[in-house]
Hints:
The complex is a heterodimer of chains A (263) and B (423).
Chain A: E1 4-15, E2 18-29, E3 33-37, H1 44-51, E4 59-64, E5 72-73, H2 79-85, E6 87-89, H3 102-110, H4 118-123, H5 126-145, H6 161-173, E7 179-183, H7 191-208, E8 211-215, H8 219-225, E9 228-233, E10 236-241, H9 243-247, H10 250-257
Chain B: H1 3-24, E1 26-29, E2 34-37, H2 39-64, H3 92-103, H4 106-126, H5 129-154, H6 163-180, H7 184-206, H8 211-231, H9 233-236, H10 257-283, H11 286-296, H12 298-303, H13 308-334, H14 344-357, H15 362-378, H16 386-400, H17 417-422
Amino acid sequence: MSQQILNVYDMTMDFGGLRAVNHVDIAMDQGEIIALIGPNGAGKTTFFNCVTGVYTPTTGDILIQPPAESQRSIKGLKPSTIAARGLARTFQNIRLFGNMTVLENVMIGRHTRLQAGILGAIFRTRKTMEEEEQVIHDSYAILKRMELDQYVNDLASNLPYGAQRRLEIARALATDPFLLLLDEPAAGMNPQETKNLESLIKRIRDTEDVSIFLIEHDMSLVMSLSERIYVMDYGKLIATGTPYEVKNNPEVIKAYLGEEVSA
Amino acid sequence: MNFQEIKRTLGVALWFVFLTFPIMVIQVRQVDMTIDWRWENMIYVGVGTFVGGLLWRFALSRRKTPGKAIPKVVSEDEHVSLEAVAGTGASLKQRLAALWAFVTQQKFRRGIYIAFAVLLVVFPLVNSLYQTSIMTTALIYVMLALGLNIVIGLGGMLHLGYIAFFAVGAYTYGILNHFFGIGFWLALPLGAFFATVAGVLLALPVIRLRGDYLAIVTLGFAEIVRIVFNNWNSLTGGPQGIGGIPRPGLFGIEMNLSMATTYTYYIIVAAVALTIFVVWRFYNSRLGRALVAMGEDDIAAESMGIDITRIKVIAFALGSLWAGMGGVIFASRTTFINPASFTVWQSVIVLSCVVLGGMGSIPGVIVGALGLILIPEYLRAFSDYRMLMFGAILVTMMVFRPGGLIQKKRKAYTFPVEEERTS
């Protein structure tokens, strides 16, 4: 049994009177690919935002255990701190730094793994320069692995849509995460691009040593990619299990297709 | 240009004639209680507006229709050939673009910088005291614009109270000199220090704010600073300000006005050089990149591990530092300061320098500041219409080049890096 790396325990998120996430428990093991699905407005992205620190959950706790480290809570920490702890994410609506180059976008991802301060930058100390050279080198290597090296000096906003999605993943990988949270990575992609994405995500899991947690609407992608699936509706978990189990769960069918009217 | 557009321009011209009728045509002589009807002015306004309007529409239509692609004159190794466009049917615009690319190519760039430096150094030797004095003012604004550019151009934070830090620097020198007799060279770092502290103090409460709210708070901050200086009579001399501030000293050498002006000029040149050097290195550093990323999208930046609080404080501190230093130099130059020098209007001018020159571009804001301060001075020949022409230039600029005179360009890297190391 591999090690548990994420344990979200009894998490609730209230916005005023609205309960967006309702007593949710989700756990995942190292090396897994799991998915969170559910109809629109079910609270999936809110869940992600709670885990990555954009919101602080009302109740419950979020425990992480990076490989070879002890378990600790990340509830209430700043997003930047959580990123430094090894959780990286992408966004449902692409949030790249559009006026920066592709390489710089990835270099931003390395930010949290570097130390250079103001004085180092101004005096160009040897340490800063070595670090800078290293980050350029590392970032380029990531771009190469993600097959984005042809765009290296282009502005991120000028990239084709699929490449922008990939760049977001590349930028997240640059933070050296042990857990990658992908929020609808296939949104807006055509079937061919989705297929490429599927193999890309598998390859990332196998070669980059990260576990992957995705939110996705594209059922074919979810079913073929994820090892376990959580289903959410109105903020509550309504089902969990393997793709096969979830697909045949009456609760899930009800949430997606509505109830059969007995005539 | 079709008939419809000409008709519309005519309409605009007539409307303008109507609007300006009271001020351009009617002139009341209050002494002998008569009215002069200056009908000829009406014709000038009408014809002038009509021609101007036609030019405007023509320029707009030119801008909208995408021109023929400019022939690629810059090849991969930045080797520029003018032959590429010479003799071909290239338009004037293309030729100009090619010429610009030719002049600014890598191998000439160092030469251009040196030429500018030499120009700045010999400037006071070949020009009158008056010119030197104007140039000193302009260079102070260059310094301010470069500082503000860190906050606005890189961090994307609309900061309308920048002049407050300028005031803090100027008053640091004024007050410390008045009460403790502290000289210029000690006041210079102290002014920068206090302005930086003020920058951090302002940054802390505004960290959660962005956009319009940030603009209002910074505006309020600048007013608070000005009003405090205006009313704290025992310390700042109130609206009368502080006079008799000594000019910068040089090992106690007695200097006449001309020498002192030249000397101050060289000090500001050195200060601007230092500003450019530091800002330039900050730009392409880890923290500079983080600041740009935050300006682009703060939520994404935060999720990528950038501590927004820290980077905002750094931006405000580093931005304010140059204003403080500029303030000390300003105080030593004018030898007199009062709160009237530090109104919101001054903040707006510095902001205009940055926006007009090109947000986030160092050469851009330098050109913007020089232009914005020098043009009104050289337009003095047109005395009455000076500010009118100035306004027209600003409007035209923003319509035809909304990104600023010189737009920022992100640094490009060559790959693979291994090759770069060995070459």
